[in-house]
Specification:
Blueprint lengths: L3 H11 L25 E5 L3 E5 H20 L1 H39 L18 H34 L3 E2 L2 E2 L12 H16 L1 H20 L11 H4 L6 H37 L5 H21 L1 H26 L2 H22 L8 H28 L6 H32 L4 H4 L5 H7 L4 H31 L8 H54 L9
Antiparallel strand pairs: 1-2, 3-4
């Protein structure tokens, strides 16, 4: 039988509460005198605030300095951003690749271990959301804009690079083909190109998200600690997480989330502007992109004000429906049989090429492993506090095994299906002599591919709508996470604070676009992803210790 009165007593002692539900049934709460929000400043300025003074103050001040410098020194910042990106990817790509491999091995290992029986939220906790709502929210937050931007552009880029084979100048490879390429072999190039794409959208990124989400959910819903990144360090730092070591972890999480989010918003703005130019001849300039960011940020503020259940949840479900409808349209108006067969071929190609593509050392395909893989791993790591915390908040009541299978395997299969349909349709067009999709800019490839199918104007408009709604859901859920961190772990802080962070994420995206475009976006996501990769590696030790101390889940009736 569950010991509810004992749990309530432990919850009070551990400082849980403030919107975080107490564990249901047996759990092993951490006994600490810290009370969530005890270091917060509460009061009214222009609006009600409930903020962790040090984390919010330092984070907001540094963000303000960054935005001002980037906007006032645009000509100097662009070469600086590009130099930072090139140095980090050239020298530390192995570290990003090794880190993500560790996350995959750990996540898969937990699925098959006895620790998979632990239930998030207590041994008798029940899920807060249905499977459909749960999948919709985690998928929309996890990769929405990225799938729209890279769904066509990445498979076709790797395919054409593989077809071109390798090229050596002065003893150094200068091509962008993954591994050794597949010169002139369409079948082999297609398999290698799709496998190279799946590497970036399959097990590796979702393992990063899953481990962060699992850590946060465990230490919040089972251990009674605040829903912030510092909590997963309790097995390592103990009570010191309430001091400056914990403040630094949370500040790093804020920066990682902000710049990872800004990268996605910047990519979304670039693609939306390209789509408007393609469809309606709207000038594809920074002015258009800034106007788009401002307009969509305004809609995001309305979604934030409506709350998770009224705003974000419904938007996520709408986007999932539209995305699925667009996928089915391409599947049935494109080379249907080729795409259906390709789905299973691509799964096999992914499995076959996975060891070589994920190898951190001894890579000769430096352009692929550094320009593509290193950027992706930094991007996903920088997104991990944002996506991980959001997934944690909507995953209470799941067992660790159920959680990892859902978060790790289901989205991987969906991403393979997405890339197969969108990228496979583009590759089929190129093989049929329609070279336009291969020659188009990255942000325009989706619209060129749709332009070769029936009802292209309608489907392109749906694509634009998807980009914009993914933009909104990403900014909405991102502001939710940043607000939780800067509110000391409270998940019911004033809505005005979420509005503030939603606005700030749009401002940073504008600053990066004006201060260097895609290069600036990539540079800052790599810079913030690097220190946070170290944080996550240490956090893996904490989650294993935390799971080992938990009782196993009871079968629910």
């Amino acid at each position: 039988m569950a010991q509810e009165p004992e749990n309530e007593k432990k919850e009070t002692a551990s400082g849980a509460g403030e919107g975080i539900p107490a564990p249901t049934g047996d759990s092993n709460l951490i006994d600490t005198d810290y009370v969530i929000g005890q270091d917060n400043f509460q009061g009214r300025m222009l609006f009600n605030v409930d903020l962790h003074g040090k984390v919010f103050g330092i984070s907001s001040l540094l963000v303000l300095v960054f935005v001002v410098l980037t906007l006032t020194m645009q000509s100097q910042m662009e070469p600086l951003f590009n130099g930072m990106r090139d140095w980090l990817t050239a020298n530390l790509s192995w570290f990003f690749m090794l880190s993500t491999a560790i996350f995959v091995i750990l996540a898969v290992g937990l699925i098959f271990s006895p620790l998979g029986k632990v239930r998030l939220g207590g041994a008798e906790a029940r899920p807060d959301h249905t499977y459909i709502s749960w999948f919709a929210m985690l998928f929309a937050a996890g990769m929405g804009i990225g799938l729209m931007f890279y769904g066509v552009s990445e498979p076709i880029s790797h395919y054409t690079a593989a077809m071109g084979g390798t090229s050596i100048e002065n003893g150094v490879r200068v091509d962008s083909a993954p591994l050794g390429g597949a010169m002139g072999d369409e079948t082999a190039a297609r398999q290698l190109g799709m496998a190279s794409t799946m590497l970036h959208w399959g097990l590796h990124p979702w393992a990063i998200y899953a481990m962060v989400a699992l850590s946060l959910a465990l230490f919040s819903f089972n251990k009674g600690l605040p829903l912030t990144m510092r909590s997963i360090f309790y097995p390592v730092l103990g009570e010191r997480i309430w001091g400056w070591p914990g403040h630094i972890v949370d500040i790093l999480a804020v920066f990682s989330t902000l710049f990872g989010l800004a990268t996605s918003l910047g990519l979304g703005a670039q693609q939306a502007a390209a789509g408007l130019h393609f469809l309606f001849d709207v000038p594809d300039t920074n002015t258009t992109r800034v106007i788009l960011i401002v307009a969509i940020t305004a809609v995001t503020l309305c979604s934030v004000a409506a709350g998770v259940n009224a705003g974000l949840k419904h938007l996520s479900e709408l986007n999932m429906g539209l995305a699925f409808a667009l996928l089915l349209f391409i599947l049935f108006t494109g080379p249907t049989l080729d795409l259906l067969i390709g789905f299973f071929n691509n799964i096999w190609a992914y499995i076959t090429y996975l060891p070589a593509l994920s190898m951190p050392f001894g890579r000769e395909d430096v352009d692929y492993s550094q320009s593509w893989s290193a950027f992706y791993w930094a991007w996903w790591i920088s997104w991990s506090p944002f996506v991980g915390m959001f997934i944690a908040r909507v995953s209470r009541g799941r067992t660790v095994r159920e959680f990892l299978i859902a978060v790790l395997l289901v989205p991987t299969l969906v991403c393979i299906l997405w890339m197969t349909v969108f990228g496979g349709a583009a590759i089929f067009q190129v093989d049929s002599g329609m070279q336009g999709v291969a020659d188009a800019a990255l942000e325009l490839k989706l619209f060129v591919m749709l332009g070769n199918l029936p009802w292209s104007t309608v489907t392109s408009l749906i694509g634009l709508l998807l980009i914009m709604v993914f933009f909104i859901t990403s900014a909405d859920s991102g502001s939710l996470v940043i607000d939780t961190i800067t509110a000391g772990g409270k998940i019911d802080a004033p809505t005005s604070q979420r509005l503030f962070w939603a606005l700030i994420s749009g401002v940073i995206a504008i600053a990066l676009l004006l201060g260097g475009g895609l290069g600036a976006l990539q540079a800052m996501v790599i810079c913030t992803g690097l220190p946070f990769a170290v944080v996550l590696l240490v956090g893996c030790f904490g989650v294993i210790k935390g799971l080992m101390s938990e009782p196993r889940a009871k079968k629910l009736t």
